[in-house]
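Duplicate of #3305? Posting structure anyway:
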């Protein structure tokens, strides 16, 4: 896992080498500083005896350190900034890759993962990964150079003492590695708890109107409190694991220092080490233990961040189930018919929603799909542009299986207007232009006029007209205005096939009148596939297919033909008191 993340930095090997060279220079300067300290102690003894050589030596050493100071400062600055550049650049690449992959994944993935969990991965988990990159490139890669430099200096002063120190560090390292594995395991559970917490919060904020209307604020607060308690408990388990590693590290440092002092006293007593060497060794040992403590904390941070990285990489490793074949063909505009031939489909290996459906949509006609809820109308509409793949049978355009066509070419021939059309939190013009990004302002206004929404846009509060920001999901517009803006977007897209999913549902009579006029403009000269519960909107369809729950197509024909059959469609008409 860590190696895989490290590969993001290997894309910028040049900067990484420069960072490591600068870090090595800082480490070497640390070793030189301890050497200078040893020399200072020796020169002080000479100066204390009245020798001028001691004073002159101290002055020369001071000049050397002063000359070295700006170079060390520059190397430290360069090492730090390069490490941060690598961390932030790797994060930029990962975010771009994550979103690019996310939007390529089929609809089934997005419906199977809760929105709160996905938001948690895109925000909290990615933030933790950014911290991981900063730790790896800003600390972990830079610590070894400094530690190795100090270690070499310790062996140079007295190899017996240095060997003893490293022999003590080995078992401590083994204990810490086990504790860090525990930290990682507990952090993984904490990340999952955070995802559940965000999911509950997202549901509460999205359903605030229902919560207010039902008077269930207290119950929802209690539900979130339970999720919060679970997150708190998971975070405390991580904290205890981290505390154990800190405890072992600090205890080992005191034990190591105590043993080193005993060994130093024994060596001094046998005149096998001088006092200046002893002082320099102890100071270098203190610096090395400080580095090791910092390294341990950094590794603890990494172990805590890795579960978040696993959740991000889990999405990146999830292949899209809607992918082009190696020999996928271009998809020209349809000219004959769209057909479903023995189509079966089931969500997540459940029961078939479509148990072998056969239907034909001639190009240039209007086809309606009606029937009870759960009959598979929306599923049919999702299968035609291949938002999902069939589990049996095939969908063809002009006789070619849609799975043999380039998906990008295929979806370019469709425009969709849904029951609750989604608008981005951007200007009205930007939302209409989304249908064709290269469109001019004049083309946008023309599309809005054809959708019977131009005057409404100019009359929006604030007087900004087409530059009015519509708010999250278009909340600053009325339902009818949102729908007409969506129709204008579809008009501008100018696709040959329209998919209309309950486009007039839940609208008042006045809004529906405008929408119907806009839809008539939109449908001119195009193939239209309509899902409608209001049967008055599809009386003039060329063909109406009636779908039964778990039964597929149970009737088909024109409005009058189906009335004459006095079957399922006729019963629906009577229920709506439609003549």
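Output from current build:
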């Amino acid at each position: 896992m860590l190696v895989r993340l490290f590969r993001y930095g290997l894309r910028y090997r040049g900067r990484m080498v420069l960072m490591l060279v600068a870090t090595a220079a800082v480490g070497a300067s640390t070793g030189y500083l301890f050497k200078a300290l040893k020399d200072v102690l020796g020169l002080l003894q000479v100066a204390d005896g009245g020798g001028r050589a001691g004073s002159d030596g101290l002055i020369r050493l001071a000049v050397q350190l002063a000359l070295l100071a700006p170079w060390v400062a520059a190397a430290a600055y360069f090492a730090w900034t390069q490490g941060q550049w690598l961390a932030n650049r790797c994060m930029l690449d990962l975010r771009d890759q994550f979103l690019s992959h996310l939007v390529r994944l089929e609809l089934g993935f997005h419906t199977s993962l809760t929105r709160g969990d996905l938001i948690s991965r895109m925000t909290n988990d990615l933030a933790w990964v950014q911290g991981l990159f900063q730790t790896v490139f800003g600390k972990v890669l830079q610590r070894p150079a400094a530690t190795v430099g100090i270690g070499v200096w310790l062996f140079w002063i007295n190899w017996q003492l240095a060997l003893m120190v490293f022999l003590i560090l080995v078992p401590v390292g083994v204990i810490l590695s086990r504790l860090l594995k525990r930290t990682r395991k507990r952090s993984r559970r904490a990340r999952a708890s955070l995802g559940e917490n965000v999911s509950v919060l997202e549901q509460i904020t999205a359903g605030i109107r229902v919560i207010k209307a039902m008077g269930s604020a207290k119950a929802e607060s209690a539900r979130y409190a339970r999720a919060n308690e679970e997150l708190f408990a998971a975070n405390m388990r991580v904290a205890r694991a981290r505390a154990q590693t800190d405890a072992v590290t600090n205890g080992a440092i005191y034990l190591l220092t105590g043993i080193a002092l005993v060994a130093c006293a024994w060596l001094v007593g046998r005149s096998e080490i001088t006092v200046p060497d002893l002082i320099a060794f102890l100071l270098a040992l203190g610096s090395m233990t400080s580095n090791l403590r910092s390294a341990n904390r950094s590794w603890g941070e990494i172990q805590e961040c890795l579960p978040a990285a696993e959740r991000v990489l889990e999405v990146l490793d999830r292949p899209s189930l809607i992918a082009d074949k190696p020999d996928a063909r271009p998809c020209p505009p349809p000219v004959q018919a769209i057909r479903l031939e023995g189509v079966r489909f089931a969500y997540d290996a459940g029961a078939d929603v479509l148990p072998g459906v056969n239907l034909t949509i001639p190009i240039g006609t209007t086809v309606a799909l009606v029937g009870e809820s759960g009959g598979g109308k929306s599923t049919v509409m999702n299968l035609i542009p291949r938002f999902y793949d069939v589990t049996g049978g095939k969908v063809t355009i002009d006789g070619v299986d849609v799975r043999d066509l380039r998906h990008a070419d295929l979806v370019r021939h469709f425009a969709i207007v849904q029951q609750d059309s989604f608008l981005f939190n951007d200007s009205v013009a930007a939302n209409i232009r989304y249908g064709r990004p290269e469109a001019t302002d004049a083309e946008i206004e023309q599309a809005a006029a054809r959708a019977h929404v131009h005057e409404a846009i100019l009359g929006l509060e604030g007087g900004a007209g087409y530059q009015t920001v519509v708010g999250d999901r278009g909340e600053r517009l009325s339902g009818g205005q949102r729908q007409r803006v969506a129709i204008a977007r579809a008009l501008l897209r100018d696709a040959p096939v329209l998919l209309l999913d309950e486009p007039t549902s839940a609208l008042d009579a006045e809004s529906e009148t405008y929408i119907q006029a806009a839809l008539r403009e939109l449908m001119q000269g195009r193939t239209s596939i309509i899902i409608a519960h209001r049967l008055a909107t599809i009386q003039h369809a060329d063909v109406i297919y009636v779908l039964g729950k778990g039964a597929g197509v149970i009737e088909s024909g024109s409005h009058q033909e189906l009335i004459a059959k006095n079957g399922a469609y006729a019963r629906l008409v009577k229920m709506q008191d439609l003549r």
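Confirmed duplicate; merging threads. The chain has a mean pLDDT of 80. The radius of gyration is 35 Å.
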